[in-house]
Design brief:
Elements (H helix, E strand, L loop, with lengths): L2 H6 L4 H9 L4 E4 L2 E3 L5 H8 L3 E2 L1 H8 L10 E4 L14 E4 L16 H11 L2 H13 L8 H6 L19 H13 L3 E7 L3 E7 L3 E6 L1 H4 L2 H16 L3 E6 H6 L1 H13 L11
Helix pairs in contact: 4-5, 5-6, 6-8, 8-12
InterPro entries: Restrct_endonuc-II-like (IPR011335)
Organism: Microbacterium schleiferi
Protein name: DUF559 domain-containing protein
Amino acid sequence: MTTSELRAEGWSKRRIARAVDRGELLHLHRDAYCAPDLPLPCIEAGRLGARLTCTSELERLGVFVMTHPDRVHVHLPRSAALRNPQSARAKRHWMILNRPRPRGALCVSPLDALIHAVGCQEPRAAVASLDSALHRRVLRRSELDELFAALPARHGVLWRLLDERAESGPESLLRLILRSIGCRYDVQVTIAGVGRVDFVVNGWLIVECDSREFHGDWAAQRRDHVRDLASAALGFATLRVTAEDIMWRPDEVRRALTGLLRSPGGRRGPIAG
């Protein structure tokens, strides 16, 4: 909020100064203030006279981004400049916003953050972010027309790769690997006596995406082993792949999947390439 907005609400200059001194109000720059309990990335963007966007804003919203932004991503009008142009922490975005925000807003709309993030990330990471936004209902399917219309035409190919059923970013990335192999796969499959699994490939191979968050302790691993025994009794094989390998060693994951599906015991379904 600006000084004039505070004054319009009955704040005197002395009251504003006292609130800043007490930490009840943050002075962002010459004519802008905010509450001290706002997320730190928003405050950082505000101090720069900008708005939080791209992967920085998506991360704040709980949307998957493959890498933690090493610099805060901010949006500025083309005619503006950062309040502190020496800030090495800022990655600037200049595109005209599809959904302009009111004066004083410290972040762009979720749609604009996604538009910036698609252009800022590699394609597979962009798909994972869009899947996550759809799954978390940060983005609606009905908004995809507007989103892709704001992007260069080369990004249009990503639309047909989206699937909001993915419950995590690594699941989206693994789905893209499976798609590149050319195998048949079903996602989020419930198997009687086993429970729900991430993927069933060619009708016989269960592929699970394991993260430290949900599979890191022994009790969780024990539950996984019990499920694997139950699925083996039904004739399924199981491959567990860590989120780290999916994100940072995708070629090795692809080779492992291809090797399994081409093995003599795996010739139960078609495999291309």
